[in-house]
Amino acid sequence: MHPDATYLARQYYTALDHHGYDMLRNILEPEFVQHRGDMTLSGREEFVSFMRDDRPQKDTRHVIERYIQSKSDDEIVVRGHLEDRDGDELFVFLDRFRAHDGKLSELKTFVKSSTAN
């Protein structure tokens, strides 16, 4: 039995927040793709490389407010916000993950600037 999308999403945020890029690589399909407003990252290696080397802030923490799991266990929507190292909210996000055969296959990210900024 493969892990469901909820488990994989939790692993995804843990990997990012703790700089666990090998862990991140292990939960993504090779053809993983992320769509977001400012770019599309295609392929597991491109995505992991961006998160490890090129994202604007790496010392951040994802604060999850809600997980909404699909009935089929292959899709989940996650609502939360991203905090910087001082605990200041950077933005609110809504992530929609799709999973296939125990790995994340797709992520669509929506962000809204924080009202605190």
TrEMBL record:
Gene3D superfamilies: 3.10.450.50. Transmembrane segments: none annotated. Signal peptide: none annotated. Residues 9-106 form the SnoaL-like domain. Pfam families: SnoaL_2. InterPro entries: NTF2-like_dom_sf, SnoaL-like. This is SnoaL-like domain-containing protein.
